[in-house]
Write a structure and sequence with these properties.
Length: 456
Amino acid sequence: MQMFQIKAFDLEQSLQEVTERYEKEKQKRKALHNSLIELRGNIRVHCRIRPLLPFDDAAGHSQDRQRSFSEKVAYAADDETILVKCSRPGHASVNKTFQFERVYNDLESQDAVFADVAPLLTSLLDGYNVCIMAYGQTGSGKTYTMLGPQLEGNLAFAIEEESELGIIPRATEEVFRLISEKPPGSYWVEVSVVEVYNNEIFDLLAKDSCGKVFGVKRDVVTTREGKSDVPSLTHETVENASEFLHLVNKGLQLRVTHPTLIHAHSSRSHLVVTLTITTVVFGDNFGTLWEDEQASQRLNKEASFTFPQKMRDNKSTSSSRASSPVQLEATEKMKQVKTRLQLVDLAGSECVGMSGVTGAALRETSFINRSLSALADVLGAIAEQRAHVPYRNSKLTHLLQDSVGGDAKLLVMLCISPGQKYLTESMQSLGFGTRARQVQRGQVKKKNFSVPSKGK
């Protein structure tokens, strides 16, 4: 008996060692894969399966039909593979698998989702633009993933539910945490909130003469440098995550929603929240700046003159980036570098027969589906390396041109519904994610932090 116990113990030890080696090799493989993504400029794609919800039942159908519709057909086989059971009446069931950088099952928390997003945010302060975009059909959990639970009868999200907060509020907290580790005065943060509704861009932070926020139509243009820009877009200066959340909630009050048979608070527009981080660079070499305490003190002293108190009192600016209140006079020893974090909650693709929309909501659905098709066309053109990429076929793709086209590290968060009822839409979303992964945009460019030397 003792001999069997010894053998069992040895087997457990061997199994533990093999498991540890497997996990180490898995981490190495992930690191190599991430390096390859960086070099190729591939789009990272994560996929989240939401739980089955009460509205997934097919009301008005027989019990057998309801059971069929609410049957779960999408599963996370592991943390990189999703398995979908495809079946049709009179045909054998076929299992299809899809591979992504990360797959979340229906039990994984908001914490787990953000843990895989957080490393991208460090890139912001390293000189890279970052874009995180949620894609999926209506009712698949995009807004919950990006913002968190919405208050009943209110478009705002519940700030008190910290464990339920989505990527947007968590990302902002993380950005300000990273900034707090840098010398005071070396970073300046602004936020803008826009929605793309019926192929028109609306500024959700614009104010009337009484200071009340209301949506103002804006246009998107291409600058001489080939970048997309929204002239006269409102940029609000924020000093902490709390101020940011307050502004976003204000903007969300104006976002267009409409109840459908699928989702009681269906978003009828694409939401784009942008954090613009201005880095004040002082000295001849950015890389050694923070190691030199005296240089940091000089920076703080000069920055205190650069950012006058009236700028802090007046937190709003309705001018374009070129006339931002934090613009500094170019000197031989100081310059600004702007990096941008775009957080995008796309409106959901929609099957009219299932959502039951009519009238104005039907028109909204048409614009939503067309803009998402335009996004797929843009990715297809980039993947095939066509000479012309149709960014201007939609205001959405024109607005996101820089991020999608390779000027940002891009993460697409696919959100899918697990039920048989939504199988067609889920397969469409998974197909979009698979094509997005294959896009090679070339290595993302890093913003140049170096300051010209005096002799140049």
